[in-house]
Design a protein that fits this description.
With 138 residues, this protein is α+β, with helices and mostly antiparallel strands. It has 1 helix and 10 strands, in the order αββββββββββ.
């Protein structure tokens, strides 16, 4: 009898922790991801690696908003087609590229419904572009 109570307690603890993890992952998926970056006072490209937002296990259209002193811009990056293997595989996403034309240090904030994996940063092209399920978005 003592073993059955212990087994039931262990099962309840596992179910409670699994439910808490699933709830946290679900609420984190609905919150937008954002990152701020102050570029150096030189021209160049600013890259941000973003994974698509997901509904279940399928990649969805992802919104990206760029805010700076120059203004705000929002764009929608369509997810891969449903018959594409990239629609259900992970990782899959895009590399968002901004052109930094002026040699100034105006802060930039990027907000997305996807997940920011890396960046924003100014420098070399990210290695994710070599992956078949990532594309470049300008």
């Amino acid at each position: 009898m003592r073993k059955s109570h212990l087994s039931a307690a262990i099962v309840l603890i596992l179910l409670t922790s699994a439910t808490a993890v699933a709830w946290a992952a679900r609420s984190a998926a609905t919150r937008p991801s954002n990152a701020s970056y102050t570029p150096p006072a030189e021209t160049g490209m600013i890259y941000t690696v973003i994974n698509y937002s997901r509904a279940g296990s399928v990649a969805q259209h992802t919104y990206v908003t760029v805010d700076s002193e120059d203004g705000s811009r929002t764009l929608i990056v369509p997810g891969p087609y449903l018959n594409s293997p990239c629609s259900t595989s992970t990782p899959s996403g895009f590399v968002f590229r901004l052109r930094h034309n002026m040699p100034d240090s105006i802060p930039v904030t990027i907000t997305t419904t996807g997940t920011i994996v890396r960046g924003p940063y100014q420098g070399d092209v990210p290695m994710e572009l070599l992956h078949a399920c990532y594309k470049l978005v300008k």
